[in-house]
Specification:
Layout: H1 6-23, H2 28-37, H3 54-60, H4 63-69, E1 70-73, E2 108-109, E3 114-115, H5 117-123, H6 126-133, E4 145-148, H7 158-189, H8 192-222, H9 237-240
Antiparallel strand pairs: 1-4, 2-3
């Protein structure tokens, strides 16, 4: 079947169950978990909690796969958070600090059933406005839905979820290795030997600068030069100190 990484394959299989959980809100599976684990928000927004079961922990582990492989299709806009949900080709760019709770519904003129161009122009950059205006609003009478984007049919499959999970794992591994490499480098900078050398270097150069400054001040005081900082008194050594 081409699934070489068993742990990633298991994650893709769990992601399939999560996809069913999200899209079958009338099922017993959804209703039980809704009451028990995410009563006040959606599955994708819920936190792990203080005492999670092994099953709940496993289901939450698939959320990055689901988020990466899907996008929100706009219905009435009541479920999609503008700042945190994936509903545009690129992350929205704002002109000012946005309201974290703002929903897509607030960007729609309910009387004309079109995008509120004035509100868009006052909230987003020109590029983001163009992306939003390119989205059709022909399903305002239905709920927002999460659509799988990793195949032409736009239907979830374990095979495409496996590819998404594998890519995420590879990216996380690369980031981890990079962090370790930089950690070794910073560890050298933080060693006591290196710090002592830096201290001696700074002390030596500070003494040289001080001596040179004092010499210059003596020469300037002999010529009756005025202090460059206060522009009032003569620049003597006593005045500088």
């Amino acid at each position: 079947m081409g699934f070489r990484d068993i742990s990633v394959f298991n994650l893709a299989m769990l992601a399939k169950q999560v996809w069913r959980l999200i899209h079958n809100e009338q099922s017993l599976f959804y209703r039980v978990y809704k009451v028990r684990y995410f009563p006040n928000c959606s599955f994708l927004m819920e936190e792990l909690g203080s005492n999670p079961s092994a099953v709940w922990r496993s289901l939450l582990a698939t959320r990055e796969v689901v988020r990466e492989g899907s996008t929100w299709q706009i219905g009435d806009g009541s479920r999609i958070r503008v700042t945190t949900h994936k509903w545009l080709p690129n992350a929205p760019a704002f002109l000012h600090e946005p309201n974290a709770e703002m929903k897509v519904r607030e960007l729609i003129d309910q009387s004309s059933r079109q995008w509120d161009r004035g509100k868009l122009a006052a909230t987003f950059t020109l590029r983001t406005c163009k992306q939003i205006l390119s989205l059709p609003l022909n399903q305002l009478d239905s709920y927002d839905t999460l659509v799988w984007t990793k195949n032409k049919a736009k239907t979830f499959s374990v095979k495409t979820a496996y590819r998404v999970a594998l890519r995420l794992k590879s990216a996380a591994l690369a980031e981890h290795l990079s962090a370790r490499e930089h950690g070794v480098t910073w560890g050298k900078f933080g060693s006591s030997t290196y710090l002592r050398r830096c201290e001696h270097f700074c002390e030596g150069h500070a003494q040289i600068v001080y001596q040179q400054g004092t010499t210059c001040a003596i020469e300037r005081s002999k010529s009756g030069a005025t202090c460059e900082f206060c522009c009032q008194e003569l620049e003597t050594v006593a005045h500088i100190l």
